[in-house]
Amino acid sequence: MESLWQRMYYHTNRYGRRGAAIHAISGADIALWDPARQALGKPFAHCSAGAQRSSVRAYASYLFGATPRETAELGKQAVDLGRTAVKFGWGPFGKDAAADVAQVEAARRVVCEQRDLMVDVGHKWDAATALERARLLVPFRRAALGL
What pTM value is reported for the model? Predict the structure, then answer.
């Protein structure tokens, strides 16, 4: 299977390896794995050369709330569901530094230090803004809280 993928990939060099060409390769690759898996009588994970896991960690993923209070309520839902990590992103986040800090502070307060907190900013900032905001959010890292 891997040699077929490599061959398809090699022969798309004139078309570019993005967009339609790579989507077509992906479709063919996915379509060919199922009969191979069935012929071997094994789950897909045992057919591919990739790493195998017996479990996958689940985390909650939310848009930031319209207010820090709404964000905190979403974080509490994740805690109540037993998630060990929560990711917030997008929504009103990224427009104002002080508002961003307030959102992350509200999330960290309810998610607590025992859980991972992730922030997905999307593609809102240039590099300088991203570095400046990252510095502002450092106090809400687990390590910054003494963990």
Answer: 0.64
**Strand-pair partners of 117:** 86
Contact 62, 93 (CB under 8 A): no
Q: What is the distance between the alpha carbons of residues 110 and 137, in angstroms, rounded to a whole number?
A: 16
DSSP H or E run through 89: strand 85-89
Cα dist from 83 to 19, 62, 136, whole Å: 35, 12, 26
Q: How confident is the model over 4-16, as pLDDT tens digits?
A: 878 888 888 777 7
> Facing residues of 89 across strands?
63, 120
22 backbone dihedrals φ, ψ, rounded to 5°: -70, -30
Cα three-residue angle 78-72-84, rounded to 5 degrees: 30
> What is the identity of the amino acid at 142?
R
Residues forming a β-bridge with 61 = 87
SS3 119: strand
Q: DSSP labels for 51-67?
A: ---S-----EEEEPPSS
pLDDT of 147 above 50:
no
Please report, as a single letter, which amino acid is at residue 39. Answer: A
Type of residue found at 31: A
